[in-house]
């Protein structure tokens, strides 16, 4: 894909860039010893640890709001990611649905592995006991459906917002291990509104945010 890439301020390491169109299977670590069930969830505190700064020239703002900062047996932590168009009418490759939301497929998995963000309403149903982790063998391969996301209207002043539940990554050791976890995304923007102008190559904004997890209670 040919594109004009605009990099967000990256802090200590580079953001991932690329086309978010086709999911690819990813084998899990065969040394993982995490059991497929979780007997005692414990409580965790989830906070926003930092975000990249989107360059002013893109005329897009990206924010993360922690809606519920505690993870207990009763409910998971939740956050909302919002993109706002501060420029003219144009198009974007993100929408709030179960397939083409910002953190779809493998993008919802943290670096390092440990957290997984699921769109609220689309979270897994195979929950392990009172824990917010999947009840399945951790050595299963992790694969994603292969499909493309199209261009969606992004009106001037408009927003695309998606709320996510914070789950444990069942393929990683431990349960919601304390630490800092990063999520990298690429956002494609097209000039125009689908009347021929959007046939040009997109501008791609690489952005990230980090969440911290602590075990100091709800």
Can you walk through the features of this model?
0% of the residues lie in helices and 35% in strands. The radius of gyration is 18 Å and the shape is elongated. Strands 1, 2, 4, 6, 8, 10 and 11 form a 7-stranded mixed beta sheet that branches. It has strands at 4-7, 44-51, 60-68, 70-71, 78-85, 90-92, 115-119, 152-154, 159-168, 179-191, 203-214. It has 218 residues and is an all-beta fold. It has no helices and 11 strands.
Question: What's the layout of helices and strands?
Answer:
Blueprint lengths: L3 E4 L36 E8 L8 E9 L1 E2 L6 E8 L4 E3 L22 E5 L32 E3 L4 E10 L10 E13 L11 E12 L4
Parallel strand pairs: 1-11
Antiparallel strand pairs: 2-4, 2-11, 3-5, 5-9, 6-8, 6-10, 7-9, 10-11
Q: State the order of secondary-structure elements, H for helix, E for strand.
A: EEEEEEEEEEE
The biggest sheet, with number of strands, parallel, antiparallel or mixed sense and barrel status, is: 7 strands, mixed
Mean pLDDT: 81
- Quick one: overall form? elongated
The percent of residues in helical segments reads under 10%
Instruction: Count helical runs.
Output: 0
Give the radius of gyration: 18 Å
- Which blocks of ≥5 consecutive residues have pLDDT under 50? 1-32
Please provide the count of β strands.
11
Distance between the termini: 45 Å
Strand content: 35-45%
Structural class: mainly beta
Q: Quick recap of the structure?
A:
Helices cover 0% and strands 35% of the residues. With 218 residues, it is mostly beta strands. The strands form two sheets. Strands 1, 2, 4, 6, 8, 10 and 11 form a seven-stranded mixed sheet that branches. It has a four-stranded antiparallel sheet with strand order 3-5-9-7, with no helix packed on it.
């Amino acid at each position: 894909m040919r594109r004009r890439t605009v990099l967000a301020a990256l802090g200590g390491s580079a953001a991932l860039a690329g086309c978010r169109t086709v999911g690819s299977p990813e084998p899990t670590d065969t040394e993982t010893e995490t059991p497929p069930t979780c007997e005692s969830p414990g409580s965790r505190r989830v906070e926003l640890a930092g975000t990249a700064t989107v360059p002013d020239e893109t005329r897009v703002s990206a924010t993360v709001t922690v809606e519920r900062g505690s993870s207990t047996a009763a409910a998971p932590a939740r956050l909302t990611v919002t993109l706002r168009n501060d420029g003219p009418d144009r198009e974007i490759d993100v929408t709030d649905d179960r397939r083409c939301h910002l953190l779809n497929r493998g993008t919802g998995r943290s670096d390092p592995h440990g957290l997984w963000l699921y769109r609220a309403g689309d979270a897994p149903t195979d929950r392990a006991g009172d824990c917010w982790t999947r009840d399945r063998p951790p050595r299963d391969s992790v694969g994603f459906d292969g499909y493309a996301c199209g261009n969606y209207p992004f009106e001037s002043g408009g927003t695309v917002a998606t709320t996510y539940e914070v789950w444990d990554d069942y393929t990683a050791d431990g349960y919601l291990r304390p630490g800092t976890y990063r999520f990298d995304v690429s956002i494609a923007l097209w000039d125009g509104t689908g009347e021929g102008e959007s046939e040009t190559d997109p501008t791609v904004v690489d952005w990230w945010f980090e969440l911290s997890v602590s075990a100091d209670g709800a």
